[in-house]
Write a structure and sequence with these properties.
single chain, globular
C-alpha cells in the first residue's frame, strides 16, 4: 500500500533548452513539497509542453494546486 504521493515530470527536448527544462522541473518540485501534495497517496505524471515554459511561477503554482485538489 502506498502511503505517500509520487511525481514524475516529463519535459521533451522540444520544450526548450536544458536550463529552461531544469528550471521548470525545480519549480514544480518546489510546489509539490511546499504545498505538501506528497501527503496524498497518488502517483502523478506531469507532461510539460513548450507553452508552460513561458508561464511565471505563480501561474504554474495555481494550475498545479488546482489540479491536485480535483
Amino acid at each position: 500500500e502506498q502511503t505517500h504521493g509520487k511525481l514524475l515530470i516529463v519535459t521533451s527536448r522540444r520544450s526548450g533548452k536544458a536550463h529552461k527544462r531544469n528550471k521548470i522541473r525545480r519549480q514544480i518540485k518546489s510546489i509539490f513539497y511546499e504545498e505538501k501534495l506528497y501527503e496524498k497517496p497518488a502517483i502523478s505524471v506531469l507532461i510539460v509542453y513548450k507553452e508552460a515554459m513561458e508561464l511565471d511561477f505563480e501561474k504554474i503554482k495555481d494550475f498545479f494546486t488546482d489540479a491536485f485538489k480535483k
